[in-house]
Amino acid sequence: MNSTTTQIEKTFLALPQTEKDAIISYGAAIRLSALRQRLFLAQSKLRHFEEKCSTTLEQLEQRGLADDADFRMHEDYLMWHHWADVAARTKKDIALLEPLAAQGIPGGTSGNVGD
């Protein structure tokens, strides 16, 4: 851990508990929103490949690529796997973060000016 990280940690830990809770809650909500956007993108890419190839990745895995598959199909296959991995990892991240984000901000802090 470098000195910058240590200083940031000390500064954070010195905050009142309500501020720490608010920072964590807002951060979780923002991160969850970004993850949901990434999942939407990954799922859109997966649907694109399914429509383009008229099959699912699982079905293609069972059949295997055709012997005469061109380079474009091989590239699609690699990208299809990439987006399937992105979707799976993102779903796991969302599942881990949702309970924290669902707790909301303790005390109903709204973050409005004057609170």
Description:
This protein starts with a helix and ends in a 13-residue tail after the last helix. The chain has a domain at 39-101. The protein has 115 residues and is an all-alpha fold. It is built from 4 helices and no strands.
Q: Count the DSSP helices.
A: 4
Give the number of DSSP strands. Answer: 0
Roughly what fraction of the amino acids lie in strands? under 5%
Apparent shape? elongated
Name the structural class: mainly alpha
Give a concise summary:
With 115 residues, the chain is mainly alpha-helical.
Write the layout of secondary structure elements.
Layout: H1 3-14, H2 17-53, H3 57-63, H4 71-102
Helix pairs in contact: 2-4
Short descriptors:
115 residues; elongated
